[in-house]
Amino acid sequence: MPDSLPRPPKIPMTSSSCVCVWTRGWASLRFTASPCQVYQSLAMAQSANKLFTPPRSQQLARGKDASKSSKKNKDSKDGTSSPSSRDSSNQSPVLTPTSSSTTLNDIRNKPLPPNTTGHGDHGLPTQPSNPGQQGNVPDRFGPMGGASSPNGGNANARLPPTVVISPTPGHIPPPGAAETMPHDLAPPKAGQKSLMIHRGIDNRDAIPEGLRTPKRQHSSRFDISAHRELEKLPGFHEVPPNRRQELFMQKIDQCNVIFDFNDASGDMKAKEIKRLALHELLDYVANNRQVITEPMYPRVVDMFAKNLFRPIPPPMNPQGEAFDPEEDEPVLEVAWPHIQVVYEFFLRFIESQDFNTNIAKAYIDHSFVLQLLDLFDSEDPRERDFLKTTLHRIYGKFLNLRSFIRRSINNVFFQFTYETERFNGIAELLEILGSIINGFALPLKEEHKIFLTRVLLPLHKPKSLSMYHPQLAYCIVQFLEKDASLTEDVVLGLLRYWPKVNSTKEVMFLNEVEDIFEVMDPAEFAKVQEPLFHQLAKSVASPHFQVAERALYFWNNEYFCNLVSDNVEIILPIMFAPLYENSKGHWNRTIHGMVYNAMKLFMEINPQLFDDCSHDYTEQQNSAAEREALRERKWAALAEKAEQRRLSGGLADAPARLQVGGVLSRVDEVDPVTEDNQKRLDSLKLQDISSRRPGGHERQNSQSSARSR
Known about the structure:
Layout: H1 35-47, H2 56-60, E1 102-105, E2 111-112, E3 155-156, E4 162-165, H3 244-255, H4 268-287, H5 296-308, H6 336-351, H7 357-360, H8 366-374, H9 381-397, H10 402-420, H11 426-438, H12 446-456, H13 469-482, H14 487-496, H15 503-518, H16 522-540, H17 545-552, H18 558-566, H19 568-585, H20 589-605, H21 607-622, H22 624-648, H23 654-658, E5 659-660, E6 663-664, H24 672-708
Antiparallel strand pairs: 1-4, 2-3, 5-6
Helix pairs in contact: 3-4, 3-5, 4-6, 5-6, 6-9, 8-10, 9-11, 11-13, 13-15, 14-16, 15-17, 16-19, 17-20, 19-20, 19-21, 20-21
């Protein structure tokens, strides 16, 4: 404390007084002493003119380092030296707290140092009344919490309670550090929830469940087995060969037991026994020949179904906004340690050279395939990857199921496109179809062409296109490589579903169009160039720079430029206006350079046509005002004519309105309602006449046939 400030006086310790020690941690003080005791102490100090009040500058200097004060404080004899003083015996027992907690220490019937021991004694308490506060007593207090005087003397005294503002543990900054507000007093930051009612909670796991946003722990529901106690069976190498098939069946039975993996500590021994049994089955099938017998087929398929076929609820957040597959993280399957080995074992089983498809047909049927397709809705991408491989192996092994698998996948796509727009395994199913399309025989069947136009192309419509677009584009390009005549249907289908306001989807569409250009035949390009470049012109003129940039990247494709140069007479008049306007008017400078390169290419291909387009564009801009005025005049004339008809429509006598001097007026003055009714009557008469004629012909035909008989 600076020398200019007066030394805090010692207040006489009487039976009716208490001491309030001033501190810089003045924010949000909590006095546990009674108001009467504090008031008596302050009143005595004021009456004696001994109340120490620091200047306002010292009250506001909360972050000031005590070590930066005057050097004279180190040698002062009044006991108010800073904590950095060399002689700890000369330090004041009063700390400068960084927190604002106060404690009432009732030291009645407790020993205290005498008041005549030194300057540093200000009547501080020896031991807090709360036993939980003993661990928070500073080091300069004695072993029992008493204040150690410079001379080390102690005396027994009976004093009234004393109010002491003491620091809270954990908020004492080092010398020179700026003092901060305590954690429970600091205002919450932006987006941070206040935990004022849970003071001192810094661990996320310690937050009560009611304040945390709940999170789903599993993405599916298993039918837990009632009996889950297992005993470890011997390995296949530990039994003679004639007992291995029986042991195989016993291990299959163990693998049929379903455990609850939501309880990580439950049935740990039995879970490990099942996992080891699955690995032993996997190794036995993979590393041995002539071990698969006919009785194994139903048991293996049944074990696969019991472990994997389960209801998969739609993903949803327990609280907050709806589940977004593009934003929210998927919930992984907690039972994956067993599920993974089941998939691996089944794959090795059907890939084995001993696998007999004719025997397995009775068990891997339509119902099995449908339940397998339902599992593609799993949130766990690891499971969907195994499902993709499993379904592809079944498609290759079972020829009788191929058509049914394709139709079932089509039904999944129809439901996704037109009903739910939510299915997690669309990308994996498209990967399977990409491999299937690659193996289609030529010429393509009509069934496959219908699949392209009615199933694959409408998949561009859902909002979640980004989740499966690369696989979808691959399938469409595979079709065009098989049959180039489908180019027109594909391009017109893309233009039909072209996004209007979704720039992300538009960039994906442009990527797909460039992939189609790579396999497009020049003859097919001529059929679609006009509608396609009208859309490209809109994309080039888009204010979204990513859309415009992606469209202009087409001019970096050599094959695209060759197609454009062969048809420049049709393409340049369509593209000139957006290119010229964006060369100066677009807000992104990168677009300016790309537009310049595209216009330079057109100029090099056909300079005369480029000049003609430039001249036409200039004339069109110059006559824009005149055309706008002509348009306004036409609208005004139309509005005036409509007003006249509205006024003339109020007359009740229609014949008088239609005749002038006994002669019918012009056709455009006929009442529109009467004219419309007359047209409807005439159309009905024509329909009646046309409906009668086929009947007459039929009767004539029947009469002529009867005569011929």
